[in-house]
Structure to design on (530 residues):
């Protein structure tokens, strides 16, 4: 009988965390930010079908980076949890906080008990009656939760984008301004950092997934901004910010 | 993951993370079947007396469909509720009306609404109108045992179909049988009188407003001859619930828009108590 090697809990945790971080660092980023009419989600995502941003419930949306099958699994679980709570209590009793807690517990359990941690990072965002009531929860692979204010960026270039948002984000941005800011930050920070001396990157509507939670919308507040509407909006954004009308 | 949390606090039990179904009802059946409308434990061999909802009518017009329901719920000879709502949006482009045991029926509508929204969120796309009609049939199928004991639910489902660019109506029996109805239909205790009125008043070229008017006339006729169907209660301001579904989606006609139409129908009955007459030749 062979004696198993002893590995300290510190080492196990560190190895798992490094592994998860490496997986997440390969992925394209997502930005969530507050604007004057609610919350906006902007993801660099060339796929039309495999979403990184999704509706969970009336006021709650979900954004994720990392391994698709893993965060899709969590997204579906979140929709089930929200619909179950809404069905057994009332629609008003479904909150982003309880969903964020459930995700945190689940991710934490998977991180400590499973062979392989989930290589994902999530945002659960809830739009409130007023901007002060908005809630943005950021969850990492080990189940840590952070309550963010105003904006959050995650993914391969999450840190660089966060630094950019810190400088440029302010309260009360209009839809166009917020979209412009998010797209500029995503474009300026490609995964792995900008290549030295390279031309600044340009993102087209086809490479983006955009959605909003609109504060004043009745009932389900989640709305995808896609296809023609996004292309049109980009025209508007371009005209105000870039006389040459280059694509973003 | 050993904890079991029925109402969804704490971490997510295994069923939540299981891959597979986009159906909320199937998820409930796996997670906690007692939460399904059919999950009640019924007393053996007895029938239950509970409030019943009565008459629902629906009719198509070019470009959409109108559904209307009276506001009465009865329990035996007692009026249990004067202003019950029996017509609901199923989702943004369909409508469901219910006759039969009110408590079970309202719960079933609630489950049906979640079912459609759940599918839409999980799959990222709406079900087809036929798919929605079939899901309602599947929910009803579980209810047969209760139907035998006096708690039958008889829904009427209608919606706008993008493929035909028109309204379609579906009726059901207590076993979950699903039947497409053409032009118009009615369910509930007063439906035989309402259907007679619909037959005589429906025309292919009805406009939306005329279709709304016809639905009120039909409900008036149902209330005229069926004691369990309530007529418009102008004294209390209780009007039938009328919903329209067209290319723009579901819309309940607000009371202030509906009231003049109802007053017109009631006024018409002052001079002609049996309502408008149909021409013999047309």
């Amino acid at each position: 009988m062979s004696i198993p090697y002893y590995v300290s809990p510190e080492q196990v945790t560190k190895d798992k965390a490094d592994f998860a971080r490496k997986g997440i660092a390969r992925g394209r980023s997502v930005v969530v930010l507050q604007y004057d009419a609610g919350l906006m989600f902007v993801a660099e995502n060339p796929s039309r079908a495999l979403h990184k941003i999704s509706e969970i419930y009336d006021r709650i949306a979900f954004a994720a980076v990392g391994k698709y099958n893993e965060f899709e699994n969590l997204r579906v679980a979140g929709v089930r949890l929200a619909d179950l709570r809404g069905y057994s209590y009332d629609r008003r009793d479904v909150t982003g906080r309880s969903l964020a807690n459930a995700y945190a517990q689940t991710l934490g359990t998977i991180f400590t008990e499973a062979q392989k941690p989930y290589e994902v990072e999530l945002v659960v965002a809830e739009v409130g009656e007023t901007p002060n009531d908005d809630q943005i929860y950021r969850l990492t692979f080990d189940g840590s939760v952070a309550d963010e204010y105003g904006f959050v960026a995650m993914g391969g270039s999450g840190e660089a984008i966060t630094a950019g948002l810190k400088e440029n984000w302010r309260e009360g941005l209009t839809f166009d301004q917020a979209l412009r800011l998010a797209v500029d930050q995503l474009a300026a920070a490609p995964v792995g950092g900008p290549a030295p001396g390279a031309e600044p990157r340009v993102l087209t509507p086809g490479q983006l997934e955009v959605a909003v939670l609109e504060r004043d919308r009745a009932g389900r507040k989640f709305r995808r901004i896609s296809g023609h509407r996004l292309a049109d909006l980009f025209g508007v954004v371009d005209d105000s910010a870039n006389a040459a009308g280059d694509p973003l | 993951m050993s904890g079991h949390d029925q109402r969804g606090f704490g971490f997510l039990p295994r069923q939540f993370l299981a891959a597979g179904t986009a159906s909320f009802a199937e998820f409930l059946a796996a997670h906690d079947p007692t939460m399904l409308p059919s999950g009640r434990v019924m007393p053996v061999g007895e029938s239950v007396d509970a409030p019943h909802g009565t008459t629902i009518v629906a009719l198509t017009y070019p470009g959409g469909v109108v559904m209307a329901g009276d506001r009465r719920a009865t329990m035996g000879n007692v009026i249990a509720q004067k202003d019950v709502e029996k017509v609901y949006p199923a989702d943004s482009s369909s409508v469901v009306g219910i006759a039969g045991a009110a408590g079970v029926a309202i719960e079933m509508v609630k489950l049906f609404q979640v079912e459609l929204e759940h599918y839409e969120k999980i799959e990222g796309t709406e079900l087809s109108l036929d798919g929605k009609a079939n899901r309602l049939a599947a929910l009803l199928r579980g209810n047969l045992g209760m139907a035998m004991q006096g708690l039958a639910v008889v829904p009427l489902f209608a919606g706008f179909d993008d493929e035909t660019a028109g309204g379609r109506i579906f009726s059901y029996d207590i076993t979950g049988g699903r039947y497409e109805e053409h032009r118009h239909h009615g369910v509930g205790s007063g439906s035989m009188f309402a259907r007679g009125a619909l037959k005589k008043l429906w025309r292919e070229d009805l406009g939306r407003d005329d279709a709304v008017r016809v639905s009120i006339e039909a409900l008036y006729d149902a209330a005229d001859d069926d004691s369990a169907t309530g007529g418009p209660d102008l004294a209390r301001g209780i009007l039938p619930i009328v919903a329209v579904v067209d290319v723009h989606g579901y819309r309940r006609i607000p009371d202030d828009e509906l009231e003049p139409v109802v007053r017109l129908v009631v006024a018409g009955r002052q001079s002609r108590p049996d309502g408008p007459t149909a021409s013999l030749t047309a």
